[in-house]
Every structure is written in C-alpha cells, then in structure tokens.
C-alpha cells in the first residue's frame, strides 16, 4: 500500500493531473463570478466544484498513504500543511452561518495551490518570505523619507497649494501619488507657477471650502526653482533609489531560496549517484565471481 501510494505521488502524470485540476478550479471560480452563468449553468459549476474538491481530498489521502504507518509525517512539509488548510476551509458549508460570503471566497484560495504544484513558484514565495525582514527596513527608510519630505512640503506649500499640502497627512498622501508618477507634474506646476495660474479652478475652491479653507486663505506663490528641486529630488530618492533597494532585497532573497533548495536537493542527488555506483560494483563482483568459478572448474 505504501509503495503503491509513493509510486503514484512520484509519478509525473499524477503531478500534471493535479496541476490541471488546480487550473480547472481557477477557471470554475472565475466562471462563478458571472451571475448569468451561475443561473444558466449553476448545477454544472457546482458539480465541477464538488468534483475538484473530491480530487484534492483523494490527493491528500494518497500523500498520507505514501508515509505508511506514519501518516502524520505528511504535515512535516509546510506546503502540505498549506494544501490541507485550503482544502479544509473549502469543506465548510458555504450556505450556512453568518460567514457564508467569506467561506465562498475561500474557494479562490484553491488557485494558490499552484504554488505547491510548481517548484519555481515555491522559490519566489520563499524569496518573498525571506525578504520580509529586509523589506521592513526598506519600508522604514521609506516612511522616514515620506515624513521628512511631508513636513518640508507642508511648511513650504501649504498656503499656495492646500489641496495637496494643507497638513502632514495630506502631504504624505500627495507624495505617494508623486512616487507612483500619477500626474505628479500637475502638483509640480501648481507650485512652480502658483495656484492662481495653474491647476486651481472653481471646483477645487469648492472642495477646499468643504474642509474649512476659503479662497481668501489661499496665497498664490510661485516657486520655480524651489519646487523643481523639491519634487525632482523626491522622485529620484523615492521612486528610483527605494525601488532599486526593494528589487535588490528581492533578488537576494531569491538567491538564498535557490541555495537552500539546492542544498536540500543535494543529498538526494548524491544518494542517487551512490546507488548507481553500488549497482555497477555489484555487477562487476558478480562477473568476477563467475570467472573465478570457471577457472576453478578448469583446474579440477
């Protein structure tokens, strides 16, 4: 029983079949988002959904059976725990309870099983998990940068451009818009030429009035050189340097994940080579024994 299950688990056709079922699960979940398809083909989609869940349960049983009398060893692999958790959540009836909508959304999680089916995706996920501590430091650096430039922007441009720099939180939100290059030149030109000459219209004044800022409180001031220095330096520091730091951290995490995977695969490779060599030695010893027997028979 154990050997049969192990052969099935190690078979390429089994892995490809599970991969196909995972892709089918993703398609079925996508089709269920269309109300018209749910009404016209609801029974078919429900049947496919149940069949897919049944296949996943059978897969777990086979993998547990591959461990023989120690089925709990199945949970020694974190990816198996991940698969089991997804299937377990999907077994909860989605039509009952106050969390029915949330439980229906759990079906989407089955698409995440692609991570366990494709080793390359496992490397990427492992790289992301390994990079979390370093990403935290990059995030801290970004927060410091946003805070410093947010304070500077509030001091420099709150009177000219209260729409984007009336307080610290609004300034930091505007800086996030700038770092994503979402029409950031409009904010630049407002502070280069003055709000009376660019960007501000009646709709903007009405919006500001709703937050307690009247038109006479706005003092239009042009800052052609200071605005260029402020915004261009922030885009270079925020969008380019921080982004490259993030990419560098991710690449380093991928290299570490690859090294760990190679280290994990190394003993298995060495064991395979040793077995092949052992088989060759055994064959050579058998041939040598036959030759010795033949020579001894000739002497007698």
Description:
The chain is mainly α and 300 residues long. It has two domains: 2-117, Four Helix Bundle (Hemerythrin (Met), subunit A) (Up-down Bundle); 124-258, Orthogonal Bundle (Helix Hairpins). It has helices spanning 2-10, 12-31, 35-65, 78-91, 100-105, 114-117, 119-157, 162-165, 168-179, 184-193, 202-209, 224-299. Helix 2 runs antiparallel to helix 3 (35-65) and helix 10 runs antiparallel to helix 12. The longest helix is centred in the last third of the chain and has 76 residues, at 224-299. Residues 267-273 have low confidence and may be disordered.
**What fold name goes in the CATH topology slot of the largest domain?**
Helix Hairpins
Given as residue ranges, the uncertain stretches (5+ residues, pLDDT < 50) are 267-273
Which CATH class of the largest domain is shown? Mainly Alpha
Number of helices: 12
Q: How far apart lie the N and C ends?
A: 51 Å
Element order: H for helix, E for strand:
HHHHHHHHHHHH
Strand count, sense and barrel status of the largest sheet are:
none
Q: Using the CA coordinates, give the radius of gyration.
A: 32 Å
Query: Which bin fits the share of residues in helices?
Result: over 70%
Q: In one word, what is the shape?
A: elongated
Instruction: Quickly give the CATH architecture of the largest domain.
Output: Orthogonal Bundle
By helix and strand content, what is the structural category? mainly alpha
Count of folded domains: 2
SS elements, strand count? 0
Mean pLDDT score: 82
Task: Provide the β-strand percentage band.
Answer: under 5%
């Amino acid at each position: 029983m154990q050997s049969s299950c192990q052969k099935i688990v190690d078979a390429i056709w089994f892995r490809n079949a599970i991969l196909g079922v995972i892709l089918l699960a993703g398609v079925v979940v996508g089709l269920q988002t269309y109300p018209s398809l749910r009404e016209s083909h609801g029974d078919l989609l429900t049947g496919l959904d149940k069949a897919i869940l049944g296949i996943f349960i059978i897969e777990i049983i086979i993998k547990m059976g591959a461990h023989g009398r120690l089925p709990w060893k199945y949970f020694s692999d974190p990816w198996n725990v991940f698969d089991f958790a997804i299937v377990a959540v999907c077994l909860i009836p989605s039509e009952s309870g106050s969390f029915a909508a949330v439980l229906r959304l759990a079906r989407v999680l089955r698409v995440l099983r692609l991570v366990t089916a494709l080793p390359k995706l496992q490397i990427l996920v492992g790289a992301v998990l390994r990079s979390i501590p370093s990403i935290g430091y990059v995030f801290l650096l970004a927060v410091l940068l946003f805070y410093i430039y947010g304070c500077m922007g509030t001091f420099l441009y709150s009177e000219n451009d209260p729409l984007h720099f009336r307080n610290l939180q609004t300034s930091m939100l505007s800086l996030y818009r700038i770092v994503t290059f979402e029409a950031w030149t409009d904010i630049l030109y407002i502070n280069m030429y003055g709000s009376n000459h660019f960007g501000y219209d009646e709709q903007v004044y009405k919006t500001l009035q709703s937050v307690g800022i009247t038109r006479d409180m706005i003092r239009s001031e042009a800052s052609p050189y200071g605005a260029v220095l402020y915004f261009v330096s922030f885009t270079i520091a925020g969008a380019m340097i921080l982004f490259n730091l993030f990419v560098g951290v991710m690449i380093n995490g991928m290299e570490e994940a690859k090294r760990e995977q190679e280290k994990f695969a190394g003993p298995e490779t060495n064991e395979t080579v040793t077995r092949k060599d052992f088989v060759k030695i055994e064959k050579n010893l058998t041939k040598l024994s036959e030759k010795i027997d033949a020579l001894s028979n000739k002497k007698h």
